[in-house]
Specification:
With 341 residues, this protein is α/β, with parallel strands linked by helices. It has two domains: 160 residues, 3-Layer(aba) Sandwich (Peroxisomal Thiolase, Chain A, domain 1), CATH 3.40.47.40; 156 residues, Stage V sporulation protein AD (Peroxisomal Thiolase, Chain A, domain 1). The chain is 34% helix and 22% strand. A seven-stranded mixed beta sheet has the order 1-2-10-15-14-11-12, sandwiched between helices. The chain has a six-stranded mixed beta sheet with strand order 4-3-9-7-5-6, sandwiched between helices. Helix 1 links the parallel strand 3 and strand 4. The longest helix has 20 residues. The chain is globular and about 50 Å long. The chain starts with 5 loop residues before the first strand and ends in a 6-residue tail after the last strand.
Length: 341
Amino acid sequence: MSSVKKLGQQTYAFTNPPVFAGAASVVGPKEGQGPLGNQFDLVLQDSLNGEQTWEKAERKMLKESCQGAVKKAGLTPSDIDIMMAGDLLNQIISANFTARDLGIPFIGLYGACSTMFEGLALGSMLIDGGFADYVLTAASSHYNTAERQYRFPTEMGVQRPLTAQWTVTGAGAAVIGVQGQGPSITHITIGKVIDLGVKDSNDMGSAMAPAAADTIIRHFQDTGRSPSDYDLIVTGDLAAIGRALTEQLVKQAGYDISKNYTDCGILIFDPTQDTHAGGSGCGCSAVVLTGYLLKEIIAGRFKRVLGVGTGALLSPSSTLQGESIPGIGHGVVIDAYNLGG
């Protein structure tokens, strides 16, 4: 028997759309100096966040954002049924240790930089299915931890090519639930892993763009909607190069998204900040969503948003072994209709 909630091949429409009950964001100094700097709940004075290592600093950011989201929702950790979170570090240690401290039943996620939207998609399924009343979703990244793991320790001062992106130092968390005052998640489109053979770990935008485009195209096909049905279409962390490629690929399929499409990796930094192509990392879409986009939707500036969390599914081992970089993109529709929109 086919699912009554499934539209087409990869999209699901919720009968009881989950509501954003609370959200919080924590960012590093560079992110605080960017165009969205005044939107975030906490801007760190330095990248160590009062800790001895960057890894511990990232963990602290994630914990602070989770606590902030739960508090804004008017809840306590004991009210949360399930926590879903992830990061870029081996064995998602930022999320694991944060879940240990919070004591919430935990499902660890790894979707690379798509993790925040992956969590929102899965959490929405749990709520719409009646398996949970409140789900906490979160993701984090840190420039220094990611560079050390995937490329070169920043102490080495390795020159970065212009295609490279700057991993966002930040953590974002959101509580979604059966009730609340925020906008709703009405649809999700689960992406497929797409790999067109890009091998350069300093050009992740090109690696992820085909997956982002595939999810956007599939969403339109499954729902029968067009780009004009959305006030904003935003990808997670393709930055300038990946954004341009995605726009081209989607246009080849017959959909022009040029008028209302941007990327979180473009929004978070100013070109004068020398981030080259733009922002990336699990924290990129997490903090732009929780610190900026949700506020814009609540304020009525966006009525309906299609967000596509994007991720480059590489590891240090796969890169050293000459493997290409698979990409993924998960779509989430955020709608303000329950706010009177």
